[in-house]
User: Which sequence fits this backbone?
DNA sequence: CCCACACGCGAGAGCGCTCTCACCTCCCCC
DNA sequence: GGGGGAGGTGAGAGCGCTCTCGCGTGTGGG
């Protein structure tokens, strides 16, 4: 079983095809500058021997790995409660695969891991990194920049010193929030509340900002800080109903919180959307379509976001490319109207 | 930016410490057989120079990569609708990290990718593979076995020729289903229905089998085939109510389907659990806790499953270990009682 | 006091590949 | 018909590391 079959080397292929190693190498790497009959002979030898290049040997000399690290910080919280990162990974994977790059996944758990990740990235195992760091005070972005490896961030990172050149991809959290709130206003609602996410995350902060853009003059009691979870949404909704029993609309910072709010509203006998209209954020399908009534929410194209991150990184990695990547890309969101508002 | 700082080599460290390359190598790899003062000198030189071993060079000679591939087949369907794989990945990642192994993620999309994955695995980039393949007729397991690389499967794979030696880790789907159905029976329910998952997946087939173990004599009309989605759960529930309006309990093959069933029951004015008791499977938190009433369901420890898969693989990879890993590990499930049954 | 042996350390080969450079052919043009 | 060039091919060095082997030093026993 552990019988490692002696894999054929370039040398072996060369011998079989009756050419030099250099020629085989040329053929294997695209075949420019080799005459057709030889190409054919080499191809056949490769085929017959089942030759596969040794990546380690190749990397040793080229100093390329055709591999990209994806760093996901602090998965304990939000990450694994929803398909967000899975979708993102899928987008990233597709793009990387299309360009023959591998995806090395680095999940970090707490501060201890930071050093490990930094060391790995600095260790030259990968050509670049895609980093998801949700928290404003996360030291990881700084560490990674120190590693001196091309990096693209997922989500707007918190601002640190010397962050001007940071490349990131984010959804238009602020614009999406504005659209959600305007939709509620357009329904004639006048007492629109906002259940926020954890405000140490840029996405939550940006959504709150969007809410304020439209309802800057709102009663401060209509804004309740929460945590992106159903339980948190429930608590926030109860608080809201206690503070302002006349509330007639809620914009929750994500679908999970909205689902909690919905449950409290029903429990308290408020009809949705007749008495209170509810809008979520994310369009996390199993949740948004699973609530009763189904949730009106703001959709972000997560998979596309992943794809663009990968594309941006690959562009920076490509030595041939004209090197002027945008610093940040903000993807549009769309309002998905279902039954709750 | 692309200014690749010339990374220090073993040679450089050796020169600085005034020893030979061999000695530095020994120290870096554990330091056995090197006297303390020298170890100290080398350590300092490493520190000062910020030396990090070149993994490519090392792999070239050791033929080890300290990297494991995680292959997830057909992510289009179930995979990305729920946190299942994310949790699994987390478990895997933790275990691999603890043993200084890297995780290379391979997501496949349709048949074309199979060849790519097989080539990659056969290409000797990784030491082993963890493979998730849900479908009975998936050709991937066969291809991978052909690649001759140590592999552990997640979930019981469908049976192919020569599968005796397959190592896999799975939840006790059958036992969990039995427990769910017995719980319903213990509640005094006599007309217990089952909404299945897609029966070409072993997990769904095993859950059905568990149902049959307890209710082998049930009216066949009480079993409706479905697809693990909320929409599918809705359709199945409607069908069920049409066939047997007197149904008083439903065991849905997963939480998503259960959430759909719940919605139909409410819509049709059946009280849960009074009129109809409902049990799900998975304990997918955002769903199970997000339904109304909250879902009684069968929990599987997904993260642990990932961890065990990784552990099993690492054990097979470890040349020093006494080599007798179990062929299959089946993890217990537990019934989580909430409001729906 | 000398020999045997173990242990610590260095020299050097070689892992499989790419890439430069020199050579050799063949063709075109004067 | 000969010289120059372009393009195709091979030889060989070297990427950074590990590992075997042999030598030198220190220790214990006869």
Assistant:
């Amino acid at each position: 079983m552990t019988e490692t079959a002696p894999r054929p080397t370039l040398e072996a292929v060369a011998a079989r095809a009756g050419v030099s190693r250099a020629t085989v190498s040329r053929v294997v790497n695209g075949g420019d500058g080799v005459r057709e009959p030889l190409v054919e002979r080499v191809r056949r030898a490769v085929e017959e021997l089942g030759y596969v290049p040794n990546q380690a040997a190749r990397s040793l000399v080229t100093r390329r790995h055709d591999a990209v690290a994806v760093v996901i910080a602090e998965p304990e919280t939000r990450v694994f409660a929803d398909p967000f990162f899975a979708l993102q990974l899928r987008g990233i994977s597709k793009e990387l695969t299309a360009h023959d790059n591998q995806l090395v996944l680095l999940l970090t758990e707490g501060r201890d891991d930071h050093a490990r990740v930094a060391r790995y990235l600095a260790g030259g195992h990968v050509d670049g990194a895609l980093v998801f760091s949700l928290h404003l005070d996360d030291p990881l972005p700084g560490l990674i920049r120190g590693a001196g490896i091309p990096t693209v961030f997922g989500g707007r990172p918190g601002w640190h010193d010397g962050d001007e050149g940071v490349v990131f991809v984010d959804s238009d959290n602020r614009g999406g929030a504005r659209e959600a709130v305007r939709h509620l206003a357009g329904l004639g609602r006048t007492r629109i509340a906002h259940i926020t996410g954890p405000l140490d995350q840029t996405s939550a902060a940006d959504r709150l900002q969007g809410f304020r853009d439209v309802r800057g003059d709102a009663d401060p009691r209509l804004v309740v800080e929460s945590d992106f979870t159903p339980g948190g949404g429930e608590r926030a909704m109860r608080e809201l109903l206690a503070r302002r029993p006349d509330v007639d609309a809620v914009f929750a910072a994500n679908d999970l919180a909205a689902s909690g709010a919905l449950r409290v509203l029903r429990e308290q006998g408020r009809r949705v959307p007749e008495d209170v209209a509810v809008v979520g954020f994310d369009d996390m399908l199993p949740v948004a379509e699973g609530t009763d009534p189904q949730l009106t929410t703001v959709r972000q194209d997560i998979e596309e976001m992943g794809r663009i991150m990968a594309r941006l990184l690959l562009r920076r990695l490509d030595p041939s490319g004209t090197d002027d990547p945008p610093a940040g890309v903000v993807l549009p969101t769309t309002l998905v109207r279902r039954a709750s508002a």
Q: What stands out?
A: Chain A touches chain B through 64 residues (CB under 8 Å). Residues 302-317 of chain A form the longest helix (16 residues).
